Amino acid sequence: MAPSTNRRPRGRVVTRRTVVRAGASSPDEPSSARGIRRRAGHPATRGAFASNWDGTLDRVTLLTRLRDAILRVDWRRVAVATGSAAARWVLRLGLPLAFITLIAHSFPYRTTVEGVPLQVQATVITRPGFSADTTIGNWVFPAVDGLPFGVHVSPQNVDLLTVANSASGDPAQFAQRLRDAMVDRLPEVVAWLAGEVVVGLGLGLAASAMINMAARYARGRQRRPDELKHRLRQLGAAGLVVVGVAAYGFLSYNPHWTRQSRLTGTLAAAQLFPDQLRSYYDQQSKVYDVLGSVTGIQAALQNQIDVSASPDTALRIMFISDVHLAAVYPLIGQYAASYHVDLIVNTGDESEFGTSAEMTPEFVGAISAVTRATPMLWLAGNHDSPAVANIMAAVPGVTVLGTKQAVTQGSTEGFSVSGGMVRAFGLAIAGVPDPRVYGGPGAFGSDDTKTVDALEKHWMTAATSPAKKSDLQYDIIATHEPVAAGYLRAALPNRIRQTNSGHTHAQNASGDIQHGDSVDLVEGSTGAGGLDNLVRGSDRPPVEFSIESVASNCQFTRAIRFQIRTPASGTTDQPGAYGNDVTATSVSFRPQKISADRVCGAFLGIGAETPLH
Predict the structure, then answer these.
(1) Which helix (H) or strand (E) holds 427?
(2) Going by DSSP bridges, is the β-strand pair 556-564/582-588 parallel, antiparallel, or unpaired?
(3) Model pLDDT for residues 251-263, shown as the tens digit of each residue
(4) Which of 439, 430, 438 is nearest to 460 (CA)?
């Protein structure tokens, strides 16, 4: 009988069928669903996941099981374990630091240099960097590295008359001998302090281990069979931490740390009057002879740092702001003369209520007495009306940057501002006034942050729109408010080397001054708040101002920033009047990207003010 043609051959599939076993996936099933099914079928997760016939995850079941798992957790036990682990790490880190601090304070390195007994002490957290005390002030170099450790040097039982006699002939030579002697002792100092750190670290780790073992014993736990190996592993981990900290210190080391310093006390006050020191001390008693010798030594050390660390200085610019009718212009003139300042940049708020009546002949005369000797670039702040700007423009030696005018559009009153610029001593310096006026209408007199920011953004953008047609690089653009300075940088990206502002009655921190090639100086109130603080009933800030050095190639090299509390006596033209209420912070700038053929100097003079372009 012939075989039927419809009979299927053995082992051959004629029709295509798909058989999906339990836990297997269909070829047409999405890959995400296959992943869910695989996890659902895995022995470790079977029962933790549920799936519908279409391969989607049953979310209700998942959330229910997750909730049940959370409820089953013994959170009290977790909290106890977490607290115990945190306590162990606090002991492992805190005790070594505590022992290092204790040993450093108990056993400082002592030496005598040029007849001066000195004590060298390691510091933890409280005084990072390098610092030194004198009998009349403090000298701090905070930017050595990124570690919270430091070295502090202080004289002990100094015979000031002996030091004065040793230094009176040639303070610079005495300072050089003092410095050379300290350099010779530096290996001993480093070895001593490093030994204190190692001993303190060892004692701290040992104390931490003993406390840990005592706690285990108190809880009835037996001693680990490998206790010694466990402690050795902890010691090795501590060693790795020390190596890591040392590596971070090495990587964060600032080779130019001597360029950033802070002086306090009479040492700082003496910085205000460098040219008058010798004649001043020559007229005083032996007590002031001692003071003169000490400040002479400090000045010689500072000069050695300046000469070795900074390029030549072609001109100096003083930045002041927010005088608010305070009678400080005699002081400003003294500072400008002492430091041979070539230009003053004033970022406004000369008045309080913006009326011409406030600008009395006596006050305007005090300004004129300064600007006849040192020219000033001035712009209007938010307390300065167009009337105040007109009065300032009439003061000899004052150049007003930009314009500020009252405008009326329909029934709306307000003010409009425009920018101005000058060529001063080889620098392109521009300024944009503040659009607000104290007590002005609507947004122009508002103190609401959102309203003010929107107003500043609008007018800073409008004032700089003519400048967008050119590619001119501005060395300095000044305005009154720091937020406005930010809008200026945004409006002219990569075209402003330095911005200057005020308004906040507080200088910005040294670490916030330079970012890349851009320098941003926010000045405090040179008038110590003036009438503004009396009106607002707030505490008076210090008198603040900055003096910036400019090299002959137009690089901004450094700034000395002063903070002066109210003088202890009515005499304000001598260093001794300021007691310990003066801080002078020196900040050095990294080189900026400028043309190699730039030349700056006072011999180039100041050109006429022109609209911003």
Answers:
(1) strand 427-431
(2) antiparallel
(3) 988 887 776 777 6
(4) 430
- Bridge pairing between strands 343-346 and 376-378: parallel
CA-wise closest residue to 292 among 79, 29, 574: 574
List of E strands, 234-292: 261-264
Residue 298 domain-assigned (yes or no): no
For the segment 278-291, what is each residue's pLDDT rounded down to a tens digit? 444 344 333 334 44
Statement to judge: residues 475 and 589 lie in one domain: yes
Task: Quote the radius of gyration of the chain (alpha carbons, Å).
Answer: 36
Rounded to an integer, the average pLDDT of 216-224 is 77
Cβ atoms within 10 Å of 219's Cβ, excluding its own: 8
Look at residue 101 and give its three-state secondary structure: helix
The pLDDT tens digits of the residues spanning 546-576 come to: 999 999 999 999 898 988 876 544 444 444 4
**13 in a structural domain:** no
Tell whether 434 and 560 lie within a shared domain: yes
Residue from 400, 468, 460 nearest 435 by CA: 460
Measured between its terminal Cα atoms, the distance across the chain in Å is 109
Domain termination residue (choose one: 26, 48, 72):
72
Task: Specify whether 52 is located in the same domain as 141.
Answer: no
**Residue partners of 601: CB distance under 8 A and separation at least 6:** 314, 315, 425, 426, 552
Q: Where are the alpha helices (DSSP H) in 376-448?
A: 386-393
Q: Supply the DSSP string of 14-43, one letter for each residue.
A: -S------TT---TTS-HHHHHHHHHHHST
Answer whether residue 269 is part of any domain: no
Same domain (yes/no): 539, 562: yes
Domain that holds residue 116: 77-259
**Tokens in use for 461?**
């953008």
Give me the amino acid identity at 407: V
Q: Is residue 23 part of a domain?
A: no
pLDDT at 295 over 60: no
For the chain, the domain total comes to: 3
Same domain, 132 and 245: yes
> Nearest to residue 378, comparing CAs of 341, 438, 422, 411?
422
CATH code of residue 561: 3.60.21.10
- Number of continuous H segments (helices) and E segments (strands) in the chain: 15, 22
Lowest mean pLDDT among 43-52, 98-107, 211-220, 479-488: 43-52
Same domain, 434 and 504: yes
pLDDT at 21 over 60: no
- Non-local (6+) Cβ contacts of 545 within 8 A are 318, 319, 320, 332, 335, 523, 524, 526, 561, 562
Tell me, letter by letter, the H, E, C secondary structure of 180-217. Answer: HHHHHHHHHHHHHHHHHHHHHHHHHHHHHHHHHHHHHH
Question: Is-contact 120 151, C-beta < 8 A?
Answer: yes
Tell me what the mean pLDDT of segment 354-378 comes to.
96
| Cα 358 versus chain centre, distance | 36
- DSSP percent split of the chain into helix, strand, coil, nearest 5: 45, 20, 35
359 and 446 housed in the same domain: yes
> What integer is the mean pLDDT of 195-210?
87
Amino acid found at 454: A
Question: H helices within 54-156, ranges in order?
Answer: 59-72, 75-106
Whether 224 and 360 share a structural domain = no
